[in-house]
């Protein structure tokens, strides 16, 4: 089911149609609007340029989050492999102890 939500980004209303719930859509719009406002506050650029820079900032956050999640997945995989090796060692030691 698609949701229709009206959001305000940089003072302009937009109707967003998406599967996500209203709260999520409004949170995403607030992120975009906040980034545009931050760029505008720090520069004298026009609205379009500020919007492009805000999009670049959000893309930067996105790619850094992807890199971080990839790193965490690698760390979890490493821990799982270590766990499997330790379990095998425990099983081997239990078998050796039972044989005595």
Task: Describe the protein's architecture and organization.
74% of the residues lie in helices and 14% in strands. It contains 2 helices and 2 strands. The chain has a two-stranded antiparallel sheet. α1 (22-42) crosses α2. The longest helix is centred in the C-terminal third of the chain and has 53 residues, at 47-99. The chain starts with a strand and ends with a helix.
Strand content: 5-15%
Shape field: elongated
Question: With helices defined by DSSP (H or I, 4 residues minimum), what is the helix count?
Answer: 2
What can be said about the biggest beta sheet?
2 strands, antiparallel
Beginning-to-end CA distance, first to last residue: 65 Å
List keywords for this structure.
100 residues; alpha+beta; 74% helix; single chain
Would you kindly provide a brief summary of this structure?
One of its GO terms (cellular component) is cell septum. The chain has helices at residues 22-42, 47-99, and strands at 3-9, 12-18.
């Amino acid at each position: 089911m698609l949701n229709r939500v009206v959001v305000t980004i940089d003072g302009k209303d937009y109707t967003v149609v998406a599967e996500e719930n209203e709260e999520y859509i409004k949170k995403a719009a607030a992120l975009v609007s906040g980034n545009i406002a931050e760029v505008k506050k720090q520069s004298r650029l026009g609205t379009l340029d500020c919007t492009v820079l805000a999009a670049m900032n959000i893309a930067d956050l996105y790619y850094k989050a992807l890199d971080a999640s990839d790193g965490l997945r690698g760390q979890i995989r490493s821990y799982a492999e270590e766990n499997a090796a330790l379990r095998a060692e425990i099983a081997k030691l239990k078998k050796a102890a039972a044989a005595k």
